[in-house]
Amino acid sequence: MAYQTGSSTTSIVDLLNTLFTFATANGWTQNQAPAAVSPFHGGINRGTTYVQFADGADSTNMSMFISTGWDASAAGNQPGDSGAEMRVTQIDGPHENYWFFEQDTYIHVVVEYDAGLFRHFGFGQINKVGTWTGGDYAYGHEWSQGSNSDDIGSAFHYTAFDGTGPVNTSRSWTMRVSGADIADYASESPTRVWGFGGDTNDSRNDNNGVPSIPLRSTGRSRFHQEAFYSIPESQLNAFKPLIPIPIYTTIGATPDIYRLVGFVPDMRWINMTGIDPAEEISVGGNTWTCFPVTRKKRDQDNTEESANLGIAYRRDNT
Q1: Phi-psi region at 8: left, alpha or beta (left = phi > 0; alpha = psi -120 to 50)
Q2: What 3-state class would DSSP assign to 99?
Q3: Dist CA 120 CA 313 (whole Å)
Q4: What are the boundaries of each domain within the chain?
Q5: What is this structure's pTM?
Q6: 78, 93, 85, 251: which is closest to 172 by C-alpha?
Q7: For residue 303, what are the contacts with CB-CB under 8 A and spacing of at least 6?
Q8: What is the pLDDT of residues 109-128, one digit of tens each?
Q9: Would you report the helix, strand and coil content of the chain in percent, each value rounded to 5?
Q10: So what's the pLDDT on residue 216?
Q11: What is the dihedral of CA 116, 117, 123, 124, to 10 degrees?
Q12: Is 227 helix (H, G, I), strand (E, B) or coil?
């Protein structure tokens, strides 16, 4: 398991160059070097997980894409592109700090883009339940500014493994999950390849025009959201639970039926009560680094805040 942290990356391209150097040193393949050339900022892969980076909606943002392959001659979308654009906003730099967490099957990234303000993005393979085709995921982090910025439940935010119904689910998170292995979709032709996360039965098409499969998880969703920023640590023993992040497919039925297909590796929800941003805690012999989803604050003053909702990343394995 590999880990790196640093400071003072100056721009999106500088951050990606630092990330790619880290990734290739740990077994990932660079398909295209990061460069300040619009629209692409490079691509990497490991196994079947192919991700690319590009200009965002404006100069402060970065967009991330995931596909099933890489074609150096492609002027636009890569082979098997999911059709999802995961944005990471407000990271034009310079950045206060960054953290990279890598295992053979994933890379998770945290950027402190300004003091106390964080962005998360990542990609990899989930830990599957059962045997099925796919499991490659990617997630970005877009936090609405202005009047929605202090509303942790706003549908105008897009976060890692969001369970709230965002306005555009293809900007939140996505995963490859072949419909051929899911009973409700097995008879369809062409076979569905990608799923989009959120809280709606949104079947947006991938870039081959094939509808997606609705996915669910537990970030910013109903009970989980309230629990993570409202329930403090145990007053008896200061226990801080690390909550696994499950992935479900949605089966087209009334009422909805959800099927558990796996868990995000080495990444947990955590209540940040009593925990400072970037603080490390030890649980079961493993070290976890904890971060707010965006900022540990609950003043409701029209600035970014996510109260005590946090994400913990495993730093080491025992």
Answers
A1: left
A2: strand
A3: 11
A4: 2-314
A5: 0.92
A6: 85
A7: 149, 150, 295, 297
A8: 999 999 999 999 999 999 99
A9: 10, 40, 50
A10: 83
A11: 20
A12: helix
